[in-house]
Amino acid sequence: MIKIYEDNDSIGLFLQLMQRRSEEDSKDALEAVEGIIGAVRKEGDASIKAFTEKFDGVTLEQLKVNEVEIEDAFSKVSSNIKNALEKAITNIEYFHKKQIRQSWVSTEENGVIMGQKISALEKVGVYVPGGSAAYPSSVLMNVIPAKLAGVKKIVMVTPPKKDGSIDSNILVAAKLAGVSEIYKVGGAQAIAALAYGTDTIPKVDKIVGPGNIYVALAKRVCYGKVDIDMIAGPSEITIVCDEKANPRFLAADLMSQAEHDKLASSVLITTSKTLAEEVNKQINIQIQNLNRKEIIEASLKNYGGILVVKSLEEAIDMANTIAPEHLELMIENPIAYLGKVKNAGSIFLGQYSPEPLGDYMAGPNHVLPTNGTARFFSPLSVDDFIKKSSYIYYTEDALRELSEDIMILAKAEGLDAHGNSIKVRVENE
User: Fold this and answer.
1) By CB count within 10 A, which of 12, 150, 225, 242 is most buried?
2) Binding positions for Zn(2+) (predicted)?
């Protein structure tokens, strides 16, 4: 069951607790990550193999996945899964193609030319969780926007299973999406290899993809040497609903996030105490048939909550304060309230747009800001894999028109050489 909160004080305390759940960045974990990164920088492949044996229990001769392994994966994966992956790829490509930007140029009457040149990053690294868990959907969501942006080389890293292999679904998804190279390495050592390069694993320009606390901390430490997408925290969902919402749907959606992790957060904000109680009843019924029951129970107990408020406007305001990764508006006429949503990673409208639809098949990206960072971060997109360069061309006459103002500003800032750069062009020798 999820605890129900009705008064402002208890709701406030719950929201504070939820926001603190990600404060698991222990000093010990950070020290361990820094040590791993240092070792990879110094010892390269040898340290990666040693860490893989230590943390994953696997001794590897070769880090790179070969074509035989990929072909073997295709023979093992069912046609149903392949067809589902291909359908997902079609939908993800359709959505992300609309994000593609073009370079532009502006030509003025006085001869001035200015514009913006858009270029794709050359090499991108994609981290995909592996080992005991496998998420082929994460492969698609991270790789497809990069391919559409024009990235030529996409390097994927993922931890091996105990037998030294990579999950077949992961390999098939990677091949279908267009990954260039795949390496059997996970954890902080994988991030360090992508950031600094080794004899085997190439250095990349940007690293994207989710991972555990060690992966997240490694991305944070390496940021600046390499670009990253975001520091991902535990998964979360907030559902705003009225009294007409289906309690079976609500219970199912809350548990769909709770099963990710004991630190995941599932919050329901409703105007109906009766509905809140019905949702709890449905959770108790549905949870009995779910494989990850223990994780769900722990997550709902620790960071789950049903908040009963007086109006939908108050519920939306509260959701904006939470700034959740996933926001469901399970209300009558949700489109009417869409404009009131200010902070959310991805928004799901109506009874038949559940969050897992976005995870797998709808098309929008499921790599989303967490921990309230939807206040200033956006979902992963084609924009994350491009860079922009501005350019200008001025004629002598056009420069003269602005020269006096430029020299005035340069003098005001005490930068005489800046002013001189203009002066030598507009004054006679």
Assistant:
1) 242
2) 257, 260, 359, 418
